[in-house]
Amino acid sequence: MSAATSATELEERAGALARRFAGVFGAEPDGVWCAPGRVNLIGEHTDYNNGFVLPFAIDRSALVAVRLRRPGQDPEADTDVVRLASTYAQTGLSRAEFSTGGLEPGLAAGWAAYPAGVVYALAQHAGASVPGFDLFLDSTVPVGAGLSSSHAVEVAVIVALNDLLGLGLDRPGMARLTQYAENEFVGAPTGIMDQSASLMGAEGGALFLDCRSLDSEIVPLPLAEYGLSVLVMDTRVEHSHSDGGYSARRQSCERGAAALGAESLREVPADADLSGLDHETQRRVRHILSENQRVLQVAQKLRDGAVDSIGELLTASHISLRDDFEVSCPELDLAVDAALAAGAMGARMTGGGFGGSAIALVRHDDEDAVRAGVLSAFADRGFREPALFTVLPADGAGHVQLTAPGRQ
Ligand code: GLA
């Protein structure tokens, strides 16, 4: 899909959302904001170890239409009520409400926890008191696929509120605040990669991020120029980072760092002697140390214009996640193995694991064979049919200009 086509599509989606907003809330929104989901090219579970990651924002996004309450114009102008409407994660329209005053974790549930979490984080960590507002949410990021659908919602909300309330927050600052929303309000102990990709991604590039300093660089990822695609293989095995597996891995890493006398695994040299650690912690630490090296190598290859030589590093990352970090699952392993057997240049699970999606780097000429190989391998094993689709590196979050027809 060309950039021009996707920009037009985005404007059309935004126009349609603005019309639905007006239908539900009886007034035009102040604007529409967009935030993409992400695919992580490489650098898994390194973010909360202060390490390196290399994700990219994708051409699937959450959109929010928002209107702040206006004193004197709105019947509820003096209230702090937030009214939400959404077509997110279900086919029909779903509604929710919460008050911005006295917001505490647990006072908003389901998808409403994402906007509420952002309001909470703004109050707790940025001293911002958010007035009531109306919001309509729509998203094309598949939910539960490990492509950061929830972070996309949080990021869309924070960029909207940042603009509307003139908060003057910068992108790393907004990444940190949405991480607080996720950790403290939603209750998922996740790192900072997903929000950063959604906020700081750029069309045609991947975001090389140092999660300790939050310094970042866009490195070129010119897939189409090289005749390559990134194929997402959504296993449709639902995962949740509020469950035990993710936080158990975090704790292992913290234990490993402490035992090695380091503040975090970032400070541990790649060739450190791990023999004093128990076997499980050794494997966990080995994954993080080797993964950081792989991220640095892939980033350098991309700077050097050698995107067609990163495949082996992607596959090595998967093997390390499968065997050392143990966050894969049979469906993710099958997707990777079947894609490689059918001609993919490299493949790996992406995101936190335990389900969700894997990605494969595929030459355009081999794409049909890889798709067919993966589908038939899943059918043979009696697994649910995976969803297969390609993604392109897209721009990070921002305001969407509404074209004239969208405002009618
Ligand atoms: C999830 C989390 C991220 C990161 C990845 C694993 O996507 O939200 O912060 O830890 O898992 O790399």
Q: Which short descriptors sum up this protein?
A:
408 residues; alpha+beta; Ribosomal Protein S5, domain 2; Alpha-Beta Plaits; 8-stranded mixed β-sheet; 4-stranded antiparallel β-sheet; 10 helices; 12 strands; 39% helix; binds alpha-D-galactopyranose
Question: Can you characterise this structure?
Answer:
- With 408 residues, the protein is α+β, with helices and mostly antiparallel strands.
- The chain folds into two domains: 3-218 and 394-400, 2-Layer Sandwich (Ribosomal Protein S5, domain 2); 222-391, Alpha-Beta Plaits.
- Helix content is 39%, strand content 21%.
- The strands form two sheets. Strands 1, 2, 3, 4, 5, 6, 7 and 12 form an eight-stranded mixed beta sheet that branches.
- The protein starts with a helix and ends in an 8-residue tail after the last strand.
- The model has no long low-confidence stretch (mean pLDDT 94).
- The structure holds alpha-D-galactopyranose.
- The site of alpha-D-galactopyranose (GLA) has 11 residues, from α5.
- Residues 44-45, 47-48, 190-191, 193-194, 241, 351-352 line the site of alpha-D-galactopyranose (GLA).
CATH class identity of the largest domain: Alpha Beta
Bound small molecules, which ones? alpha-D-galactopyranose
N-to-C order of helices and strands: HEEEEHEHHHEEEHHHHEEHEE
Q: Might you state the CATH topology name of the largest domain?
A: Ribosomal Protein S5, domain 2
> What structural class should be given to the helix and strand makeup?
alpha+beta
Approximate strand percentage: 15-25%
CATH architecture heading of the largest domain: 2-Layer Sandwich
Task: Report low-confidence residues grouped into runs of 5 or more.
Answer: none
- The dominant shape is globular
* Amino- and carboxy-terminal Cα gap: 28 Å
The number of helices is 10
**Percent helix among the residues?**
25-40%
Q: What count of domains describes the coordinates?
A: 2
Mean pLDDT: 94
Number of strands: 12
The largest β sheet comes out as: 8 strands, mixed
Provide the gyration radius in Å.
21 Å
